[in-house]
Each structure stands twice: as C-alpha cells, then as structure tokens.
Hints:
Layout: E1 8-12, H1 17-28, E2 32-36, H2 44-54, E3 60-61, H3 68-77, E4 80-85, H4 92-97, H5 99-119, E5 124-130, H6 157-175, E6 180-186, E7 188-190, H7 209-217, E8 224-227, E9 239-240, E10 242-244, H8 245-260, E11 268-274, E12 280-281, H9 282-293, E13 299-302, E14 311-312, H10 317-322, H11 331-344, E15 354-358, E16 369-375, E17 378-383, E18 389-394, E19 397-398, H12 406-411, E20 419-420, E21 426-427, E22 431-434, E23 437-440, E24 449-450, E25 463-469, E26 476-484, E27 495-503, E28 507-516, E29 521-522, E30 526-527, E31 544-547, E32 551-555, E33 562-568, E34 579-583, E35 598-604, E36 610-616, E37 620-624, E38 642-646, E39 662-663, E40 669-679
Parallel strand pairs: 1-2, 1-4, 2-3, 4-5, 5-6, 6-11, 7-10, 8-13, 9-14
Antiparallel strand pairs: 9-12, 15-16, 16-17, 17-18, 18-19, 20-30, 21-24, 22-23, 25-26, 26-27, 27-28, 28-40, 29-39, 31-35, 32-33, 34-37, 35-36, 36-40, 37-38
Helix pairs in contact: 1-2, 1-8, 3-5, 5-6, 7-9, 9-11
Uridine-diphosphate-N-acetylglucosamine (UD1) is lined by residues 92, 130-132, 188, 207-209, 212, 224-227, 238, 240, 282, 305, 307-308, 312.
Amino acid sequence: MTGTTNSYILVTGGAGYIGSHTVVELINHGYNVVIVDNLSNSSYDAVSRVEYIVKKPVPFFNVDLRDSEKLGKVFEQYDISGVIHFAALKAVGESTHIPLKYYDNNVNGTIKLLETMAAHKVKTIVFSSSATVYGDVTRFKDMIPIPEHCPNDPTNPYGKTKYVIENILHDIYNADTTWKSAILRYFNPIGAHPSGLIGEDPLGIPNNLLPYLAQVAIGRREKLSIFGNDYDSHDGTPIRDYIHVVDLAKGHIAALEYLNNVTEGAGLFREWNLGTGKGSTVFDVYHAFCKAVGHELPYEVVGRRDGDVLDLTANATRANTELKWSAEKNIDDACRDLWKWTTDNPKGYAVAGYQWTTLAGTDGDYTSRVHTVTKDDLSVSFLNYGASIQKVEFKNQNLVCGLDTLDEYKSQDIYLGATVGRYANRIANGQFEINGETVKLDKNNGENSLHGGSNGFNKQNFLGPIVKRSADEENLILQFVLVDKAGANGFPGELIAAVEYTVGNDFVEVEYSATTDASGTPVNLTNHSYWNLAGNKSTIDGTQVKLATSKALEVDPNTLIPTGNVSTLDISNLDGKVDNCLIVRESSQINTSSESLVEVLEASHPDSTLVLRVETTEPSFQLYTGDYVDIPGKFGPRCGFCVEPGRLINAVNVEKWKQLVLLDNKSTYGSRTRYSFKLKN
Ligand code: NAD
Ligand code: UD1
C-alpha cells in the first residue's frame, strides 16, 4: 500500500467501465479515492457496486470537468495527492460526426482539470490514452508489436483528442518539470470484474467486439457480424491485443506508484503501453467466448469495417520492466468474467421494475437514496439510511409509516422502518461477560443498552444495494451491506452485516446475515417498520391480530429486562398498549435462515380490505404498539405497530439463551422474516 491515510486520489470518469475497476484496485491497495463523473456515459449504480465490493463508502461528485467552480470545490474539500483521468467521450465513429463535442469534452475538460490541479498544487496525473494515437501502424514495416516510440498519427477526432492531451501534458512538463505525468496507452480492454458486479454497460448498439458478442449470447442481438476474413492472419480476421480490464486497472496502480517514487522535487513525463503483448484474432476471441458460454453463437462474415487494420498488438516491455507490471489474465479469463457479468446483469446496471432517486433534501448526495421496486400490486421503497423500509404500498394502500427527507429520518429516534442492530432490544445494564471479561456497551436506555446503542444500524448508511432478479426471474432482490467497526457502541469485533430484501408480487422478505472477526460478539438483527392497516386513519386503534403463540417473556416493569418467567398473554387486538416479547420457541441457533418460515402474526383492520401476515425463522418476536411516537406534523402515538422477530431479550446475559446470539469468527449469523399481503377472504 502506498496511499497515505489522509490524502486522496481523484478519479475522473470513475463511474465508467475502466474507471470503476480501477477504483476497486486503488482501494484494495490502500488508497483513498474520490470520484468525479458527470454520468454522461455511466450510472451511479457502478459506484454503489464498487462500494459494495470494497465495503467502504467512496465519495462521489456528479460534476462535469468543464465546471471549474464545482471541480474546485472537490479539491478544496479533499486533500488530493494525484489524479487518474479517465473522463472522456470515447466512441470513434461518433467522434467523426460530432468532432467539436469531442474536442470540447475531452480537451477542454482536461484543460479545466489541469488548471484546477495547478491551482491546488496537485501535479501528479495518470492519463488514459489509447493505442489509437499510433494510427495505422501497418504503414511502417517493422512496428508490430507497437513500441511507445512508434510515431503518432491518429486517424479520427477521438484519437486526435488523446494525441492533443498527451501533448498538452508534455508541454506542461516542459514548462514546469515538477509535473509528473504517466501516459497510459491502452490496447483493447475487455472482460469484467470477477465478482460479476461491475462491467461494461454500453448504451445502444455496442460497437466493440465483445460487448456485441455478449448481447448475441443473451439474445439481445441476432448474430455477430465479423468484419472481414481476408486479412493476412492465421484465420483471416484482424489481430488485436485484448487485455483484461482488471489487469489494465492494476496498471494504473503500478503507474501511480512509479510516479510516487520519482525523486522528491523532480517530475516526469512518460508513455507506457498497457497491453498483453499477445495478439488474438476475431475468431480466437469468438471461440474463447463461445467456450465460456458453452455453445456456438451465430455469426456471419461480412465486408471489412472502415478504418480497421490488420494488427494492433502492443510491445508492453516498457511497462513490464519499468512499472514491474504485466498482464496476468488471458482472453479465456476475460470471456468467463464477461459472461458472468452478462448473465448476472442482462441489461447492464438497469433492472426492470427497479428505480432509485435521491432522498428529498439530500442535495445531490447519493449516500442515502430511495430504492423502489414494483411488482404487480406491490411497490416497496428502501433507503440506504438504516437499510430502512420507507414505503410498502399494496393495492394502492400504504401499509407502513415513512418520512420524506433524510433530516426527518435523522431527527427521529423511533427506528422508523429501520434495520435494528447490532443488537435489537435490551442488554441489561449495557454489559455482558465474555471469556471471563466484562464488555461495557453504550447505555442509551436508562441503565440498559437498547437496539445497538445510540449510534446503531438505524443511523448508518448501508452500502449498495445490489439489485437483481431472482434466478427464476420472478422476484426482485436488493442487497445492502454495512461494516460496523470493532468497538462501535462498545461491541467487540468488526461485524459485516448484510440485509437482503426480496420483493415478490405479494410479499417482502428480509434476510439478515452477519460475520465477525471476533471470537465472540452478540448479534440480533431485526426490522422496525411501523405497520398500519387502518387505511388513512392516524392510529392503529381497531387493529385485530391473530398470534401463533400466547407465551410471552415476563419483564420487570421498571427495567423491561426479563425476570426469567414465562407468562401467558392472549392478544387479539391492538387497542391497548402492547410491548411484549412473544416466544415461538426457546431453543434456536445462531443461524436460523435455513429453517422453515413459521407464521407468527396475522393483522387486519375493519376499515381495510388488506391482511398482513408475518412469518419468520426466529424464535421470538417483539410486538410493540408505538405508544410514545412523536414526530411533529407527521406521526403521533400509536401511528403503527411493530413486529420485530429476533432473539429473546437480553439473551446474551442468560446462560441458556447465550448461544442464540453469540457469534464467533467461524460462524455466520442468519435469519429470515417475510411480510406478506393479501385481500381479506
Ligand atoms: P466510459 O465511457 O465507460 O468512462 C468514461 C467516464 O467519463 C464515463 O463515466 C463518463 O460519464 C465520464 N465523463 C465523460 N466526460 C466527462 C466530463 N466532461 N466530466 C466528467 N465526467 C465525464 O469509458 P471507459 O471505457 O471506461 O474509458 C475510460 C478512458 O479510457 C477514456 O478516456 C477512454 O478514452 C480511454 N480508453 C478506453 C478504451 C476502451 O476500449 N474502453 C481504450 C482506450 C482508451
Ligand atoms: C476500437 C477503437 C479503439 C479503441 C478500442 C477498444 C475503432 C476504429 N477503434 O478498436 O480506438 O481503443 O476499440 O475499445 O473503433 N469486430 C467484428 N465485429 C464487430 C465488432 C468488431 O468483427 O461487431 C472486429 C473488428 O473488425 C476488429 C476487432 O473485432 O478487428 C475488434 O474491434 P473493436 O472491439 O471494435 O476494437 P478496435 O476496432 O480494435
């Protein structure tokens, strides 16, 4: 790792194809990253998936490089030590039709960036150039594989913008030799991140070979057109140097480290080819991809494409020796990873039935967005903030209490719709014993610790979500993740907590899972939605319930901690105050996810045609009527009732229940709860 703890690398175009992969590698190498992208050819989903992969927030600014004022603010806000500059328009064909737009975006955008860098005394830049600057290298006799000293002669406006920018960087260095510029000339980047979470998401009809082939493979295009088989190669198709995008991304780290190692006070201007040094023909790539897919794909050989040349293979020796970098993956790896990306994301980052917006009042802040999925009669909205459920609308009736702005969410302390963690419900005296030692937690409820302490999961921005369709295409799945640091609210060990929502046409199911690096830490996760079936009424009065159990934990009325006794409660309506832990079964385990869902509650209201059913794999659930809610102008007492499946109250301090909640570094915590909706019979 070379990144220092406080300084940042600014990645322009970091939401794009190569940028997003590079951000992952930068963070994996210990760098802090801030992204600037105007999303003209990308979507924020790429950034949110990068965050999910690296399990860290990555600051993002939707800023056009040509907007010096906004760009300057990013430099003011972050201590930027260097820039990796991807942001550009990149379609060769398009550039021949709208050259001015290309010069303005690419060249002018870079000038504004360099001016801003200079104004903030940032003089380190890694620039995305392209092999396209070499032009048609077959004009020389012996220039393939292509070395960096090959004369430049780009043949299209896009390539010329790269050529101009390289020259600008060279001139800046000549004028001030403390500038450090790495010019990286990419050959043909292909493939995707092995996780299948990020990849290339071309708009419209893809121009490039592999994105096109991928769309043929999933049935979005009929067949591949092979542009000529009469070239002088082993099978008649042209030769290119295809490089896996992850290898390419790593090349940027190598270049950055090389620049960082240049003698203090000195500068550098230097070009490096990033390629594998090995050429492959169109048919080589076609066969590799068919192998990844598992069957032959339709193609037709057509005439040559204008501007195509026989061979563009890199001589990558300079990067290999100076940067100590070389490509490690081959076209089979790239095809396998591209196929995973394609099958996991058949429409790229877009998912039918899903959309997101920023939460009102967040002013372009993407860290807490509203994610809405719609499935037939059901529409459910979730927030990053607390991985909360904001809205559940079934047959046009909203069934939960939700707020509109982030400030409203932040100012309430009733866990509205939120994920509750690390430890739902009370821990007596805010402490527990483990390995003979007493661990003291944040006491936020008199003498007790409640719902994870004063800075619990309900107040955290979860990363993600990854949104996808279930394997049978029927349901929509949203996956959020949170890394809760060791010591947060006093809890030992880091906890990685995942919240996965599945939305079907009449249900929303939540699955929790968590792992830790601690030898023992208590975990109890639940959801705190306030349900209200009473139509437009402001309270839940009149709500009728059927419970699967009448066994309840008796609690001390002052401390609300269990006495050890079990009492019997027959609850058939919510007209009075209820705040009880009802027991489905006392025996359980740390991971209940694989157990069958058991229906624990059915609720209805005379004024509504709808019925709510709650099923869970959990041994107990807290039923709570929200009698003290007070959100002025929004919600008052008894605005909703909560059904919070989880483990028994204070289990961590009760010998016979400890194993229900103590998670160690060899196990995974898990549970599932399903809320389903139907019309009354
Ligand atoms: P991409 O389009 O996926 O990424 C470029 C990103 O820059 C996009 O997210 C876009 O929204 C952003 N952007 C464009 N103009 C901007 C502006 N004015 N202000 C802020 N953001 C802006 O492309 P990519 O394939 O990831 O390419 C990244 C870089 O690598 C580009 O400079 C490209 O020319 C270069 N390159 C790409 C290839 C390739 O085959 N993909 C080959 C050689 C060089
Ligand atoms: C193109 C760009 C180049 C960019 C590179 C990487 C041009 C002229 N050059 O290079 O600037 O750096 O992409 O993204 O556009 N092919 C087919 N059928 C298809 C598509 C492509 O046979 O549908 C063939 C082409 O003839 C070529 C090879 O596949 O031989 C690769 O094509 P492509 O992916 O478009 O990349 P390049 O043309 O090499």
